[in-house]
Amino acid sequence: MAKNRNQDSKSSGFDEKVISVNRVSKVVKGGKNFSFSALVVVGDKKGHVGAGLGKSNEVSDAIRKGGDIAKKNLITVPMNGSTITHSVEAKFRAGKVMIKPASKGTGLIAGGGMRAVLELSGVSDVLAKSLGSANPVTVVKATMEAIKMLRTKDEILARRNILGNN
């Protein structure tokens, strides 16, 4: 079954990265019931990235579900060459992230879940910092919010009703 999943991700052109797997338990009359949640990020390294949190009684099923959810939640990353278009700060619950464009050759300076999201989106030169929560789920969702806030120069000019012929 895992073999089919890898073939699907190769044929669709998306790379998949598991950020974290968490075991959770529920106390019931007969003892403890364990289940798993998996945070998965998918991207094509060409400007498309998505994140998903899959939950199941088995680790492999949780990862598969997380990948499917991530593919349904794909967003496009506006880029300026190998970096992002402008600086952005975003917050999701207690997680706060700052992402700044960097000059060519700087590399991807980010940690943890942010690094995986930016790497799979195709951004190769960026400075990023995670503030607040260290929870991977919160950091990844804050990073996704930051990416959603990015705009291209043409989008900004169109919004201000200025013709972008320059």
Give a concise summary.
With 166 residues, the chain is of the alpha+beta class. It is 34% helix and 38% strand.
Sequence-ordered SSE layout with sheet pairings:
Layout: H1 2-12, E1 15-28, E2 31-43, E3 48-56, H2 59-72, E4 75-76, E5 79-80, E6 83-84, E7 88-92, E8 95-101, E9 108-109, H3 112-121, E10 126-132, H4 136-149, H5 153-159
Parallel strand pairs: 9-10
Antiparallel strand pairs: 1-2, 2-3, 3-4, 5-6, 7-8, 8-10
Helix pairs in contact: 3-4
Task: Report what the structure shows.
With 166 residues, the protein is of the alpha+beta class. It has 2 domains: 74 residues, Double Stranded RNA Binding Domain; 80 residues, 2-Layer Sandwich (Ribosomal Protein S5, domain 2), CATH 3.30.230. It contains 5 helices and 10 strands; from the N terminus they run H-E-E-E-H-E-E-E-E-E-E-H-E-H-H. The chain is elongated, with a radius of gyration of 18 Å.
Q: What's the helical proportion of residues? A: 25-40%
Report the strand count.
Answer: 10
End-to-end Cα distance: 53 Å
Contiguous runs where pLDDT drops below 50 for at least 5 residues: 1-11
And the CATH topology of the largest domain?
Ribosomal Protein S5, domain 2
Describe the largest sheet.
4 strands, antiparallel
- C-alpha geometry: elongated
Number of helices: 5
Classify the beta-strand content into a percent band: 35-45%
Strand order of the largest sheet: 1-2-3-4
In CATH, the architecture of the largest domain is: 2-Layer Sandwich
CATH class of the largest domain: Alpha Beta
Rg, nearest Å:
18 Å
Instruction: Write the element-wise H/E pattern from the N-terminal end onward.
Output: HEEEHEEEEEEHEHH
Mean pLDDT: 89
Structural class: alpha+beta
> What is the count of distinct domains?
2
